[in-house]
Specification:
The structure is a single chain. With 122 residues, the protein is mainly α. Helix content is 65%, strand content 0%. Helix 1 packs antiparallel against helix 2 (42-64) and helix 2 (42-64) runs antiparallel to helix 3 (70-80).
Length: 122
């Protein structure tokens, strides 16, 4: 009986570790500790997929191994993670749709009081 629990339990622990690491990376990028990210918005989609796919895989493996009650528990966990996954996906799609800011254009003329105006055009 205990041998049937090892594979789904191992998958569950792996899922929890993946969610923890991805959440840490998303939060680090949100507070801009990680610096500029070339894949802005894509990490949210990966986390959303892992949030839902992990419990579904655990439920499938547990059902195949005929582990009592674990498929139902994993499906409930998958159902609970749907709302955070939707929010993460919406946030990721908003970040992908946001254009990059235009770079500043070199030097600009600044007029100082008390001096001569050397800016072009007066």
């Amino acid at each position: 009986m205990a041998a049937r629990w090892t594979v789904p339990a191992g998958l569950g622990v792996l899922w929890l570790a993946a969610v923890a690491l991805l959440t840490r990376d998303v939060l680090a990028r949100v507070v801009e500790v990680a610096g500029p990210d070339p894949v802005t918005g894509r990490l949210e989609f990966v986390l959303a997929g892992v949030l839902i796919a992990g419990p579904l895989v655990v439920a499938g493996v547990a059902a195949l191994l005929r582990v009592a009650r674990l498929p139902q528990v994993a499906l409930v966990v998958a159902g609970v993670t749907v709302l955070p996954a939707i929010i993460l996906s919406l946030n990721g799609s908003r970040q992908l749709a946001t254009p990059e800011p235009e770079p500043t254009r070199g030097r600009q003329c600044v007029v100082f009081s008390g001096g001569t105006n050397t800016c072009p055009g007066g």
